[in-house]
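Predict structure. Chain length: 356.
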Amino acid sequence: MVIPQSEKLSTRHLNRVFDNTVATYKYYWLIGILDLYVKQGKTRMSVWEIMITMVANAWYPVNYFRLSFGKSESLNETIQTLQRENDIPINIGVDKLTKVLEELIQNPNIRKQLKFLQNNVPFRFLRPWIDTSNDTEVVLRSQTFENDCLYKLEKIKGVLWVELNPKWLIYLRENYEILTSFAYWGLVNFLQVRNPNVPNISNKLIKREERTPLTQQHKFWDIAIDKGFELRCLYTNDTINKGDYDLDHFIPWSFVSHDLLWNLIPINPNVNSSKSNKLPDLNLYLPKLAQAHQKAIEINLEFNNRNKLLEDYLSLGYTPQDIVNMNKDKLTDCFYRTFSPLHQIALNMGFENWKY
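Prediction complete.
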């Protein structure tokens, strides 16, 4: 991805800031600077402010989606430690988390945990403009905005400060969304290598404040219930009544990041919160899930065969009618071949196994 050109500035060096990147720090560093400037109007910011935005933006992919940032950096472990030791909800919004972190950062122990973030990235980010590995020299040479570098660095009473180059301000504001996408595009490519079997990484970097309503998926199951399917909760065996159930993502949404019909099953609303984003035991629950889907598909094919959601089942490798025609053993095998690899990868990432 190439960033927009400018008539007044050379963007050649900015386009190279992610060359030879071995950790996520640079990506989150740029995103943090852009957010503080464009969203809060700050042209001068302490490194602590930038680090707070870095942690806030990396929080969700680490704690909620369990993405690995690789073995060569400490951001994963630090964020998990902050969450665990301070009992912060894993799905907290960025704005609320930022306020929490602004209070926590006053604690010397918290500062000690985060200090590693300022050891290299503020200096190495400027390497395309100021080609030296000497951090002290980077600080000195940045004072004159050498080669029109993006910012200058100053150390005052032990605190490192970043001041944006005035020449870049209009460009950064006008191209904020593209530059943010540039950082996330690089981050997706970086993380995909370190999470090769994880689906949909691009949708696991930013917390969505609202999830897509499952209206059509509810309608699919409502039709089956209306037409006489005596559906029971997968986990409690209670009868499921129309309008009085939750749709559960059998493999958690926080892993699959989709609402495909074959991964959704009506359950007792009281169970949903206790299951949360845990992984149901496949041997206990998957055969029952497969049988429930087979019956619901059969009814929907008869009474609502134009429902486009039925196409979701094609990703299992069979047509909906094929699934209806399967005997018990073939049906179970069909679902196991899709669910078992997903289940194992999620377990390897740290998702917990669960039984009701």
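Summary: The chain has 15 helices and seven strands.
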